[in-house]
Amino acid sequence: MTARKPKFRRRAEARPEEVLDAALDLFIERGFEATRVDDIANRAGISKGAVYLYFQSKRAILEGLIQRAVSPIAENVAGLGTSFEGDPRHLLSMVLKMVGQQLADPHTFKIPKLVLREAIIDPEIAETYRKAVLDKVIPVMVALIRKGIADGYLRPVDPELTVRSIVGPIMLHLMMSEVFGLQPSEGLAMDRLVDNHLDILINGVSAPRGQAS
Fold first, then answer.
1. Which domain holds residue 22?
2. Is 123 among the domain residues?
3. Stated pTM of the model
């Protein structure tokens, strides 16, 4: 006799994702502080107790959102940077285009959008994002720039400040859009921003021709 599959098994497995989806929509609509766990439970169509089966707190839900949407991008970038050999300009170009494509996805973009809006009010949100994303990526990028200088591909620039110069325009672009409501005429246009940024960046940090070893 064939054993019966547990009733509602698929639904139970889907619930953490439903909680995250409901929380993200509410955090964007109302803000992190103004959203209650009861609100998230109602939006997800489950009880408040069921939410706590998957997430210990509202902040744990936020961490879950970051882990789901943005941490895989950070881990991928960190992995590429750690194992890369050769001209770092190629990797920088690939990474920025990849990040631009990911952030062009409205669902993924909701996370940095939320962080930018809420971090001013709640610094712990910025800390959560920093640990999950920036702390994984920044050291790898600094090491990549440093190696590119040593190998003669890049001019002798300050590696740490150069990484800030690489990341800064993208963060400022997002902040101008989401905090100040200033966008290019065609919308966020992440792809065009990245192409423009790469043109300025690569030409700015490249060593003179013939210098690379």
1. 9-57
2. yes
3. 0.77
Compute φ and ψ for 183, nearest 5 degrees.
-130, 155
Number of domains in the chain: 2
One domain, residues 44 and 128: no
**Other CB atoms within 10 Å distance of the CB of residue 190:** 22
Instruction: Return the number of other C-beta atoms located less than 10 Å from residue 212's C-beta.
Output: 15
Question: What is the per-residue pLDDT across 98-155, written as a single tens digit (0 to 9) for each?
Answer: 887 777 777 788 888 888 888 888 888 889 888 888 899 999 999 999 999 999 999 9
Closest CA to 134 of 84, 172, 183, 171: 171
CA separation, residue 190 to residues 143, 172, 208 (Å): 26, 12, 29
Determine the length of the chain.
Answer: 213
Q: How many CA atoms lie within 13 A of 61 on its CB side?
A: 30
pLDDT in tens, 15-41: 899 999 999 999 999 999 999 999 999
Domain contains 211: no
